[in-house]
Amino acid sequence: MATLTPEIESLVTRIIGCAIAVHDAFGPGLLESVYRDCLRIELRAVGLSVKTEWRVPLFHRGEKVCGDLKVDLIVEDSVIVEIKSVERLHPVHLAQVITYLKLADRPVGLLFNFNTTSLRRGGIRRVTHPDIYGRTRVFSE
Question: How many CB atoms lie within 10 A of CB 135?
Answer without folding.
Answer: 7
